[in-house]
Specification:
The complex is a heterodimer of chains A (341) and B (624). Chain A is built from eleven helices and twelve strands. Chain A is α/β, with parallel strands linked by helices and 341 residues long. Chain B has 20 helices and 23 strands. Classes of the chains: A alpha/beta (341), B alpha/beta (624).
């Protein structure tokens, strides 16, 4: 299908609008913008049928920079607006853009319902664990103890994990990537685009001004192989500089454990093989946090199911099939009436 | 509304009445709304004019026997044109002591009260707040009363059908309906058919209700009871030729929206979240799948309006509805629709506030919220319906304005209008002028905020249109290019043009007319919304006594018709009666600097004609 697209010749730059990008120099959003433009180009997206819908925040400026249709809405409500767009016209390819505050705080409710309804949207959650546009307050994904203008002595509430939240919402597609990982990110985005249903992609994004380096303990060149594990369907869950470590299921405790492969450790065949349709495994992978665990990257879970908009339009099709075209006049006269001459 | 006493043999010895007001009252689980609705249906089919007022508590089944759990349904039906459900019932049907306690004070002097004595046990009597049995003491001495053990008679009527006592007793409302049908010569056929279909899956319940209905009817025919239990007839009302049906404001709103969608050629998208008293609109539109209507029960009020905005963005007719607190939640999104200049219809079934207020009680207290209640200078047209029938035209008009001017439109409905019923002459939709929408597809010189010179509306371009990719949003945009702009002068210009676009609508709506009376005189009564009928009757009564009073009723709350100031200036005094603490009166003062006087009633009920009449007389006397 991808190869037949008449838009195959469009380059990533053709998806860039004429608007000057206004993020801080060095912001991770630049990389994500590039990754999205590449993913659209690689997959022959039709700009006229592509819609980017965002809420409020730094990330939410995203649609202005895309040469597609775009709607910069209000804080937290992008999934709701996108739901109306997709339900009205299922032919459109609808992308939702928001940050951790937008999607997990003020708009957490809409993210939950878009995911559980399984509307065919790509929801890109730019997680920088901080409020950028409002000048640096802690966010719902900030670690406990985060010092910020609103938490001068350190935040005290537990953070939420975007991927775990999505799994809890019964999302049919959950993935994670890093802003600067331009090898992996476009592929994840392409998978999300191809997925029929609501796809949540958490993109770990560095805020250079208010939270610089928040993910650097596992996203830098020198530590990423130990700090991350790439989840690939059908492949063993191996990580480490020399691919010497892996994940194994501790059957007694029903939890994952990190094991070393080799003569002193376990056999490669003992390592868990990633099955992205396995909800239990995906939930365990989504939960892994640095520094104790490698952070799971790639498509953690994907298990397509009937989409909400399909079901709605099927009901309408069924209803309209059974009757001759109905007008309001039919309706008004259908019932107990009487005539006065 | 006095009962006539003339006997006419054409009606088999029944006493002929011009009009009668009946109020059914009982526990919220007694099925009074259902009894009232069926009586209404039957009365409509008899050709009477009618108006109803359902009045029920917010609790689904409030504790049995309590005064706060009483549910009532009032119907006024007549052989002439009527506009209100009636000030005071002529007949009160009280199914328990609490119903008697709550409603007896409203009964017209020497009115008739029919009491179900089967519920008047010491416990219920005490629960209702009576010290002694009201059937035994002097409580009923100024009224005519008929005491029937409806509970016992109902049980007897369904005996042998294998119902539990509880289920059997639940038929007592239908027994009562049977009796009232006999008293007022209503045919039972429509109710019989309704019972058969309502309980088609539970044939013994259907059978029991049919038995109860017939038993109540035969009780009237055969029982040897006091002469008070006479039979009456209310002859047909003279009405304009046409096909009629009984409708509530919910039905006419539903059909008006659909008619509007047909006139535009757009697909209707309705996003809503359940709330009293707006939910029935969600139910009725959800039933229109065969019309291609898309309905979406959202996770909350905000999502409901946002989805409707998204639908409009992608080329549907986006509609949302709610009631006071829900409308408050939608406010930010309304601002987005104003800023992005997308069509949207918002229907507010107003209820008593503030906050949760009284969800099932009517009020007109969201007018100022509708006109001014948003952050920023955020103008939006506001229209209001005056009767259940009028909801149809208002819904069509809301769709017309929204699509022609690319703007959200607030349609102020009322809880009372939603539930009230009246006969309606089904309009010929063919006669409504089409207002087709065409999406902009021309690439040359396209800018998303390029305005139509006449309407000042921006072009509607839907995603999927090749070559017109563009971005919109809630940030201020450049007047010419539509790109983000924080330019100071540009914001001034954009604010002015948004206001001008809405003000401009006053050139596209009918001139305000005087609803009743002369174009000038001493007193002008200015109203809006559901108070139309009560004001009209009060003004007519005063005019028939030669008083110089006229009525003006505003549909277009914002912007108002251009000639309204001239009309207001023609009178020495302006009186603005409202079911709120004075809102339209503030708007009129602010806009026209007139010394309007206010009359308010905020008890969750419609105005009584007599109260308005008294107000008119007093204000006129003060003028002398």
């Amino acid at each position: 299908m991808k190869n037949e697209s008449p838009h195959k010749e469009l380059k990533p730059n053709d998806f860039a609008s004429d608007q000057e990008v206004r993020w801080c120099p060095g912001c991770g959003d630049y990389a994500i913008l590039k990754g999205v433009q590449r993913a659209l180009s690689d997959n022959g997206a039709d700009p006229a049928k592509t819609v980017f819908i965002s809420g409020i925040g730094c990330a939410a400026r995203f649609p202005y920079y895309m040469e597609t249709y775009g709607f910069h809405t209000i804080h937290g409500r992008a999934p709701a607006v996108a739901t109306g767009v997709k339900l009205s016209n299922p032919d459109l390819d609808v992308w939702v853009i928001g940050g951790d505050g937008d999607m997990l705080s003020i708009g957490g409710n809409h993210t939950l319902h878009a995911l559980r309804r399984n509307i065919d949207l790509q929801i890109l959650l730019f997680n920088n664990s901080i409020y950028g546009l409002t000048k640096g307050q802690y966010s719902p994904t900030s670690d406990i103890g985060t010092k910020s203008p609103s938490t001068p002595t350190g935040s005290i509430d537990s953070p939420v994990s975007a991927c775990q939240f999505a799994m809890g919402c019964n999302a049919t597609f959950v993935a994670r990537g890093v802003d600067t990982d331009q090898k992996l990110l476009p592929n994840i985005l392409a998978e999300a685009k191809a997925h029929k249903g609501a796809a949540l992609v958490e993109i770990l994004q560095n805020c250079i001004v208010y939270n610089d380096g928040v993910f650097s303990s596992f996203t830098e060149k020198n530590n990423s192989s130990d700090g991350q594990i790439f989840c690939e369907h059908g492949k063993p869950l191996i990580f480490g500089k020399d691919a010497e470590k892996g994940l194994r299921l501790n059957k007694e405790k029903l939890e994952l454990e990190i094991v070393t492969i080799g003569p002193k450790g376990v056999k490669k065949t003992d390592i868990l093989v990633h099955d992205r349709t396995n909800r239990v495994l995906a939930s365990m992978l989504a939960k892994m946090q640095a520094p104790k665990w490698p952070v799971a990257m790639g498509v953690i879970y994907a298990n397509p199911n009937k989409t909400y908009e399909e079901a709605v339009h099927l009901q309408i099709q069924e209803a309209t099939k059974q009757t001759s075209p109905m007008t309001v006049t039919n309706l008004m006269h259908n019932g107990r009436t009487w005539t006065i001459i | 509304m006095k009962m006539a006493t003339k006997l006419d043999t054409n009606f088999k010895g029944r006493e002929i009445l011009d009009s009668v007001v009946i109020r059914f009252a009982g526990d919220s689980g007694d099925g009074m709304q259902l009894t009232g609705t069926q009586f209404t249906q039957s009365t409509a089919l008899m050709g009477n004019d009618l108006s109803t007022f359902p009045d029920f508590p917010a609790e689904i089944r409030a504790p049995v026997g309590t005064t706060f759990g009483v549910s009532a349904f009032q119907i006024n039906f007549a052989s002439h044109s009527i506009k209100t459900p009636g000030d005071r019932p002529d007949v009160l049907v009280a199914m328990n002591p609490a119903a008697l306690k709550v409603h007896l004070s409203d009964l017209a002097s020497s009115g008739l009260v029919i009491v179900n004595t089967g519920t008047f046990n010491p416990r219920n009597i005490k629960k209702a707040g009576y010290d002694t049995d009201p059937l035994e003491d002097n409580t009923l001495e100024f009224f005519r009363s008929i005491k029937i053990d409806i509970s016992k008679l109902t049980l007897a009527s369904v005996e042998g059908l294998g119902l539990s006592k509880r289920d059997a007793l639940r038929c007592k409302n239908i027994w009562t309906l049977g009796l009232m049908c006999w008293m007022y010569g209503r045919e039972r056929q429509s109710t019989l058919e309704w019972l058969e279909s309502r309980f088609s899956d539970r044939p013994n319940i259907a059978k029991a209700n049919v038995a109860a209905l017939n038993a109540g009817h035969s009780y009237g025919e055969t029982a040897e009871i006091s002469a008070d239990l006479a039979t009456f007839i209310v002859p047909k009302a003279e009405k304009k030729p046409g096909i009629y049906r009984a409708v509530t404001g919910i039905e006419t709103t539903t059909w008006g929206l659909l008619a509007g969608a047909e006139k535009t050629g757009l697909k209707l998208f309705f996003g809503s979240y359940p709330i009293t008293p707006a939910s029935p609109l969600l139910h009725s539109l959800s039933n229109l799948r065969e019309h291609g209507v898309i309905t979406f029960q959202a996770e909350d009020e905000i999502s409901a309006i946002c989805a409707a905005i998204g639908a409009s963005f992608s080329g549907c007719l986006g509609i949302t509805s709610s009631s006071g607190p829900g409308i408050a939640l939608k406010t930010e999104a309304m601002g987005l629709a104003v800023s992005t200049e997308l069509p949207l219809v918002i229907i507010n079934f107003q209820r008593a506030g503030p906050s949760t207020g009284m969800p099932t009680k009517t009020e007109q207290s969201d007018l100022l919220q509708a006109v001014w209640g948003r952050n920023g200078d955020t103008p939006m047209p506001v229209i209001s319906a005056s009767t259940p029938s009028d909801c149809f035209e208002c819904a069509v008009e809301a769709v017309r304005l929204a699509t022609k001017y690319m703007t959200p439109v607030m349609f102020l409905n009322e809880g009372y209008l939603a539930n009230a019923a009246e006969p309606w002459r089904i309009p010929d939709v063919e006669n409504i002028k089409e207002f087709p929408v065409s999406f902009h597809t021309e690439k040359t010189d396209f800018q998303p905020y390029n305005r139509n010179e006449q309407t000042l509306a921006r072009p509607w371009v839907v995603p999927g249109t090749p070559g017109l990719e563009h971005r919109i949003g809630g940030i201020e945009k450049d007047y010419d290019s539509g790109n983000i702009s924080y330019d100071a002068d540009n914001h001034h210009k954009m604010t002015k043009v948004r206001a001008a676009k809405i003000n401009n609508i006053s050139n596209d709506i009918p001139d305000q007319e005087i609803a009743n009376g002369a174009e000038s005189g001493k007193l002008l009564v200015v109203g809006w919304g559901s108070t139309f009928g009560a004001i009209e009757q009060a003004v007519r009564r005063c005019r028939s006594d030669g008083l110089q009073v006229s009525q003006l009723h505003i549909r277009h709350i914002w912007p108002m018709p251009k000639n309204i100031f001239k009309l207001l200036s023609n009178f020495e005094k302006i009186l603005v009666p409202e079911i709120n603490n004075g809102q339209l009166v503030k708007l009129l003062k602010a806009e026209y600097l007139i010394a309007a006087e206010s009359f308010t009633q905020i008890n969750g009920k419609p105005f009584k004609v007599a109260d308005l009449e008294a107000q008119i007389r007093t204000r006129l006397e003060n003028l002398k």
